[in-house]
Specification:
With 257 residues, chain A is of the alpha/beta class. Chain A is built from ten helices and ten strands. Chain B has a single domain (13-285), classed as ABC transporter involved in vitamin B12 uptake, BtuC, CATH 1.10.3470. Chain B is globular. The termini of chain B are far apart. The chains are: A alpha/beta (257), B mainly alpha (286), C mainly alpha (293).
């Protein structure tokens, strides 16, 4: 579904990614792991069009994503959450999620200007769908709270609901459980598993090994900007290069179990 | 009763209409702010609208509706032209760029003497603006902006204001939306300018410079940026206050400055802040 | 004669650069467009005038007074207005709006205190002598302006490039949060920057006041507009940009007055500004990227 071929990214003299190639298969949960600073979020930024690769190609559903502006990439079916949460703090939860539906709410000028039935029907559908998505992540009860008042863990869940609102074929999750306690992590694991069962393809970046091993059907490992392994969770767990990459780094908290 | 009203109107009609026109201007800045843009160029757009409309009626004998249309179209086109390169810039850069642009317009007007009368301005503009023109313009603008807010476009503006990168990843075409806010703001400011020109029968380049831009900004910031009532309220206060307190007229700019600082520091959402008002009401009810 | 024009351009450009430098420093380090910088410029001029006429200070002392008084105002503005907004985490436009308010407040206050007329420095303050240097005539005042501006700018450059302090400031410009994590006293350096930027602006005010022999409440406004043009031309937040942009503007203005006519003088700055915005909005040295938190 999503294929990166020999992707590299340089910032001035600094090479952040080198010859990165992997494929995210459709309908599965795919994980990208690696020690801190390996370049994982850069991969996401390249895929979603916030950055352009210095070299290599990115293909989604058979079409190249390189040079396509971010909002068009989203419209092609890629939804995303962020490592450092970027919810719209001053809006309510339900408004946050409804914003995600922007691209799918096509009504014309007369429609919204005169509050015609078409406008009202579409808006209602959007709000209903937003409630539904909020209930998937267990936040429906707080639908009219201001997003800024949410706990950290709840904010991450909100981002997830909002990303789902864009009706993605592929969901990109950037450290979805960072900063959560273990209870919240277990909860979210179930939520993501449910989402995957509904047919969404999920591509996640994560540090928490239990989370990754528990959910992902395929994993790629990034170290110092290069892919050092790709395969099923068990293969990765026992891969000596991977183990060395993690153990060899002092500043890493969690290692492969 | 009618007598009193006639008396009132003959003295204060200009003031009331000016409040209406200022409300339009404040709304034009409110619109751009609602998308996260600080367009200090709206005073310049007002000037472009004013001059275009005045030249149309004076030099070409155009009927008033046509002059108004020209007063709307000219600044809008201008906004579309300069919006392209400048809206790429983020918040503060854009504010600087529009400030600079405002000055460019002023200097251009100053130097295009044959057309604009240069520093002496245009005199003897037919006083075609009637009360119902201003009311219609204001009501129409309020309606459009109100409906806009409730549509996906208004939501997109708010998202862009908070975080334009996240907004783009929600599928929102950020540049197009910013351009819409910018151009529509210019259109409203141009309309206000055209109406104003045919009210005060004299316009000059100094009226559309930095002082005017600050005046409009003060109205919007004072009144409040959350709801549409804010800019209208701000326009009312800033226009009427110097009239009520005669001595204050001389200190008008100083007070504007103080208002901006005080509001920004202590009442960041302005006077008309629905959230805060709701809380006050709730507390009062106990 | 071209050489004569170049000399005029040099002194004018130096003052523009000095003013723009303060402006760009605050933007680079604090991330705020301080539109009260024009008022600070004016405050510097009035301070110098007051100490000369009321206290009988000589020229150098008046420059020093302007430096410190303007600097104090800059510091006060930062502490009383910008700091609370920083702590609140206000989006960038908000502090800018506040500085707009401060600027016009100070301008009006000056008008109220000193009147709107042009005030002048005593004629004996600066010797009137003209020097001949390489076949060009240059007044003592112009020499003083160039020397002082260059000295201040050079000092600033040295600090920024070669000292620990400069490194710390550049780190803050890159990312205040990261700098704080490195143990840099970010808040303290914000104060220092505000003071220094204002002090430089104040000195620029005195120099211009001496050069044009006029001190009036709104003298900072056209300067502010030129300052905006300079930093957009040179690239916001970049010191080299402020220097080169200032010199370039001085040069462009003088040349246009000499060869086109004086009416277009103010238009030059804005014409350039416009052109830059259309073709290369980030200016010569600016970055289009936004600054990280």
């Amino acid at each position: 579904m999503l294929t990166l071929t020999n992707v590299s990214k340089r910032f001035g003299g600094l090479t952040v990614l080198q010859d990165v190639s992997f494929t995210v298969p459709q309908g599965k949960v795919f994980g990208l792991i690696g020690p801190n600073g390996a370049g994982k979020t850069t991969v996401f930024n390249l895929i979603t069009g916030l950055l352009e690769p210095t070299g290599g190609g990115i293909e989604f559903d058979g079409a190249s994503l390189v040079g396509v502006p971010p909002h068009r990439i989203t419209r092609r079916g890629l939804g995303r959450t962020f490592q450092n949460i970027r919810i719209f703090k001053e809006m309510t939860l339900i408004e946050n999620v409804v914003v995600g539906m922007h691209a799918h709410l096509s009504y014309g000028l007369p429609s919204w200007l005169f509050s015609l039935p078409d406008f009202r029907a579409r808006e209602k559908r959007a709000r209903d769908r937003a409630h539904e998505l909020l209930s998937w992540v267990g936040l429906d009860a707080k639908a009219h709270d201001i997003a800024d008042n949410l706990s950290y863990g709840d904010q991450r869940k909100l981002e997830l609901a909002r990303a789902l609102a864009t009706e993605p074929k592929l969901l990109l999750l950037d450290e979805p459980v960072a900063g959560m306690n273990s209870g919240e992590k277990v909860q979210l694991m179930k939520v993501v598993a449910d989402i995957a069962k509904r047919g969404f393809t999920v591509f996640m970046i994560e540090h928490d090994m239990r989370f990754v091993m528990g959910l992902c059907e395929r994993i790629a490992v990034l170290n110092f900007g290069k892919i050092i392994a790709e395969g099923a969770p068990d293969e990765i767990k026992n891969n000596p290069t991977v183990i060395e990459a993690y153990l060899g780094r002092e500043d890493d908290e969690e290692t492969a179990a | 009763m009618m007598e009193w009203f006639d008396g009132f109107w003959s003295i204060y009609s200009n003031l009331v209409l000016t409040i209406g026109i200022n409300a339009l201007l404040a709304l034009s800045i409110w619109l751009t702010l609602s998308c996260g843009l600080l367009a200090m160029a709206n005073a310049a757009f007002m000037g472009v609208g004013a001059y275009t409309a005045a030249i149309l009626t004076m030099n070409f004998g155009a009927p008033f509706p046509l002059a108004l249309a020209g007063g709307i179209a000219a600044p809008t086109l201008l906004a579309l032209v300069i919006g392209g390169p400048t809206l790429r810039l983020s918040g503060v850069y854009l504010a600087m760029a529009t400030l600079g642009f405002g000055e460019v317009v002023r200097v251009t007007i100053l130097n295009a003497e044959s057309v604009t009368g240069g520093a002496l301005g245009l005199n003897g503009i037919p006083q075609l603006t009637e009360w119902w023109h201003v009311v219609a313009a204001l009501v129409g603008t309020l309606l459009i902006l109100w409906r806009l807010r409730r549509s996906r476009i208004g939501r997109a503006f708010e998202a862009i204001k908070e975080d334009d990168v996240a907004a783009s990843l929600m599928g929102i075409a950020v540049r197009s939306h910013k351009m819409l806010a910018f151009a529509l703001g210019a259109a409203i400011a141009g309309l206000a300018g055209a109406l104003n020109a045919h009210l005060t029968f004299f316009i000059g380049p100094s009226e559309y410079g930095f002082d005017r831009a600050v005046d409009i900004l003060t109205m919007t910031i004072l009144g409040g940026t959350s709801a549409l009532t804010g800019p209208v309220l701000g326009a009312l206060i800033v226009t009427v206050l110097p009239e009520l307190l005669r001595g204050f007229k001389d200190f008008r700019t100083m007070i504007n400055g103080a208002i901006l600082v005080i509001i920004v520091l202590f009442l960041p959402k302005g006077l008309w802040d629905p959230q805060r008002l709701r809380q006050l009401v709730r507390r009062g009810a106990h | 004669m071209l050489e004569q024009q170049l000399v005029n351009a040099l002194s004018l450009g130096c003052v523009y650069a000095l003013f723009a430098l303060g402006f760009t420093l605050v933007f680079g380090v604090l991330g705020v467009i301080n539109l009260s910088h024009g008022a600070i410029f004016m405050i510097g001029a009035y301070s110098a005038l007051q100490v000369v006429t009321r206290l009988g200070f000589p020229l150098w002392a008046s420059l020093a007074s302007a430096f410190f008084i303007a600097g104090a105002f800059g510091l006060a503005i930062d502490f009383l207005v910008l700091r609370p907004l920083r702590r609140r985490g206000a989006p960038h436009l908000i502090p800018m709006i506040a500085t707009i308010g401060l600027g016009i407040f100070f301008n009006s206050a000056a008008q109220g205190l000193f009147g709107a007329e042009n005030l002048r420095f005593p004629t004996d303050l600066v010797p009137d002598t003209q020097l001949r240097f390489l076949g060009v005539q240059i007044s003592v005042l112009e020499v003083a302006i160039i020397v002082l501006s260059v000295a201040l700018m050079a000092a600033l450059l040295v600090v920024m490039r070669k000292t620990q302090l400069g490194r710390a400031l550049r780190a803050i410009a890159e990312s205040p949060k990261a700098a704080a994590l490195l143990g840099i006293n970010v808040e303290g350096l914000f104060y220092l920057t505000s003071f220094t930027a204002a002090a430089l602006g104040g000195v620029a005010g005195v120099l211009v006041a001496l050069y044009s022999n006029a001190v009036f409440p709104l003298m900072g406004q056209p300067m502010l507009h030129k300052g905006i043009a300079v930093i957009i031309l040179g690239g916001m937040g970049d010191i080299r940009g402020a220097l080169i942009g200032g010199l370039f503007l001085g040069f462009a203005e003088v040349m246009s007055v000499a060869y086109i006519g004086s009416t277009m003088r103010d238009a030059v700055a804005f014409g350039l500004l416009f052109l830059v915005l259309l073709l290369r909005p980030q200016g010569m040295f600016g970055k289009v990227l936004e600054r990280k938190a």
